[in-house]
Amino acid sequence: MLSTFALYIKNCAMHVTPDNRLKKLIVIGDRLLIKLTRPDERTASGLYLPPGVQEKEKVQQGYVIKAGPGYAIPLPVENESWKGEEEQVKYVPLQAKEGDLAIFLLSAATEVIYENEKYFIVPQGAVLMLEREEEL
User: Fold this and answer.
1) Using alpha carbons only, how large is the chain's radius of gyration in Å?
2) H/E run at residue 121
3) Label partner for 69 (CA 20 to 30 A): which of 8, 42, 46, 100?
4) DSSP state of 109
5) Cα gap 67→69, rounded to integer Å
6) Would you call 128 exposed, middle or buried from its count of C-beta atoms within 10 A (0-12, 13-18, 19+)?
7) pLDDT in tens, 60-119
8) String of b and e for 18-38 (b: at least 16 CB within 10 Å)?
9) d(CA 48, CA 56)
10) Over 70: is that where the pLDDT of 53 sits?
11) The pLDDT value given to residue 67
12) pLDDT of residue 63
């Protein structure tokens, strides 16, 4: 089931510009913020498809805009008084990075509308494949 949430952000102390508007968003855990690529409007045989048909495909692709820190590693429980207080949370990093093209299952994604643009929040487990532009 696909959920739709509308986020309404008030501009209190910070002026929002096109450069910094997504920097305020923090993606939690093993999730990715993905913006869909423009789907092909024509089929291989030349038929034009309406946008509603393309959005109902089970597998979608888009670019990773932001990535969460990863899977949290639980801290060992030790009650040793001589040890210092260290509450640093450690994470296993995600495979996906910002800028990757991700192919993912739409059924596991949550649709989010932020500042009149549609994004998807996708857990890393729903990503089937990544394409990354790396220099050799």
Assistant:
1) 19
2) strand 117-123
3) 8
4) -
5) 7
6) exposed
7) 899 999 999 999 888 776 666 666 666 677 889 999 999 999 999 999 999 999 888 899
8) eeeebeeeebeebbbbbebee
9) 15
10) no
11) 94
12) 93
Identity of the residue numbered 94: L
pLDDT of the residue at 48: 65
Which CATH topology does 4-73+89-131 take? 10 Kd Chaperonin, Protein Cpn10; Chain O (2.30.33)
CA dihedral 120, 56, 40, 127 (to 10 degrees): 40
- 110, 82 in Cβ contact below 8 A? no
State the first-to-last Cα distance of the chain, in angstroms, to the nearest integer. 41
Cβ proximity of 99 and 9 under 8 Å: no
Contact call for residues 53 and 20 (beta carbons, < 8 A): no
Q: What tokens were used for 31?
A: 């999730």
Token pair in block for residue 100: 């990757």
